[in-house]
């Protein structure tokens, strides 16, 4: 069952590539508009070092931005979920910042942090932060009130209730937020690189487009989607290790 | 001899946004002896769960007091085991871990109690399931685990809030018999909330019959049936009499209506 599903996936991609390749060859589509898949593959191989170097750079930006977002967002959500004062104080400005498109902030970060990696990390951080906060709050709030009564009748102090009951209970939601954030962090890093950069896949993408090198542009897109997928599945792997007991994980055949 | 649990003039009024609040519990005076099995039976919304929460110190009464063992309860009373209608097991812990969480939450080491926990799990028919996870168990098995969790630290008092309300009829009967066994062996004081008349009569030394909101005590009925009671006792005429009596009280109170629709 599992195997045949994978075969279907591979098959459908192969079919798309074959049709695409044939269409480009038959209709003689110029490569600066749509390059043939085989040409893109050749470009990928020939530029492997170049793309690899810039991929690593973007990956570093995504990783730092994402980890920083997770490290700050989860505690922020815990504070907001556990105190009404904190919620009233922190929540409105957080939503307000969220309503500003992150792309609009990128030029400001260039002013603040220069042209290095910092402004890119800042955009990735900012864009990944919000979904983690929201999903963590939802997870922490969705606990049965009777559960808290039970904990109080066991004489447990608040921090122990949080550690043994609330946090494990919220983990599935937290991972939901982390998964969304992992793909958004890639968008953030790329946005940062578009604004002003001499490194990273965003930079390669702009250069390729400037030179009308559409084949390289497609190859970069492939590298980018591989990078985004690696991040997503890394988080999913972590999830599988952290919450094997959750209903979403049990559906996977062991 | 003074009672183990005493409620004196217990009143609970929940505040409302507009106007006056809802009176959930009104002047409840109840004495429960140590080792006694007392059921509180009444329609939904009669404040029976509220009374239980106040006994446990999880909810402060508007007026009146609860005292346990001569001490007025003013904060959560922790020398207790509680079983709710939902089993509230932790999905990320196996059966043994779910029972031992009782000690962990109290900041006590689990190791000295492991054998006791295992024995208790075996005594409710779950031997061999210690390493299973809650989602691998049936509803009845899950509720047995939650009863073990409530008993493992050997509290003198067991509070049960419609513990069998979510179970199918057969599982429910089995657990009633099992609970009677556990109670006869341990002689804990049990306060048992239910809306099932026959469940209350079957299990209890005394049944407290509540009125609909505001919850007041309508009658306290001693159940004088020999122990241990087996399921056949339900067919006896005494059992029927108790059942009928409580049913009539509810009919008088307008909880149960007969004769079809009435004009509002």
Describe the structure in your own words:
The complex is a heterodimer of chains A (254) and B (264). Chain A has 254 residues and is mainly alpha-helical. Chain A contains 11 helices and no strands. Chain A is globular. The two termini of chain A are 13 Å apart. In chain B, 31% of the residues lie in helices and 23% in strands. Chains A and B meet through α7 and α8 of A and α2 of B.
Could you give the topology of this structure?
The complex is a heterodimer of chains A (254) and B (264).
Chain A: H1 2-26, H2 37-46, H3 48-82, H4 84-99, H5 102-113, H6 118-141, H7 145-153, H8 158-195, H9 201-210, H10 214-242, H11 247-250
Helix pairs in contact in A: 2-10, 3-4, 3-6, 3-8, 3-9, 3-10, 5-6, 5-8, 6-8, 8-9, 8-10, 9-10
Chain B: E1 5-14, E2 22-32, E3 37-41, H1 48-55, E4 63-68, E5 71-72, E6 80-83, H2 95-105, H3 114-123, H4 139-151, E7 157-161, H5 169-186, E8 189-194, H6 197-203, E9 206-210, E10 217-222, H7 237-252
Parallel strand pairs in B: 3-8, 3-9, 6-7, 7-8
Antiparallel strand pairs in B: 1-2, 1-4, 4-5, 9-10
Helix pairs in contact in B: 2-3, 2-4, 6-7
Envelope shape of chain B? globular
Largest sheet of chain B: 6 strands, mixed
Determine the structural class of chain B based on helices, strands and strand pairing.
alpha/beta
Could you give the order of the helices and strands of chain A? HHHHHHHHHHH
The separation of the N and C termini of chain A measures 13 Å
Strand runs of chain B, count? 10
H/E element sequence of chain B = EEEHEEEHHHEHEHEEH
The N- to C-terminal Cα distance of chain B equals 49 Å
Q: Number of DSSP strands of chain A?
A: 0
For the largest sheet of chain B, list the strands in their spatial order: 6-7-8-3-9-10
Low-confidence runs of at least 5 consecutive residues of chain A: none
> For this entry, what is the oligomeric state of its chains?
heterodimer
Taking Cα atoms only, what radius of gyration of chain A do you get, to the nearest Å?
Answer: 22 Å
Q: Count the DSSP helices of chain A.
A: 11
How much helicity do the residues of chain B have?
Answer: 25-40%
Find the structural class of chain A using helix and strand composition. Answer: mainly alpha
Mean pLDDT of chain B: 91
Largest sheet of chain A: none
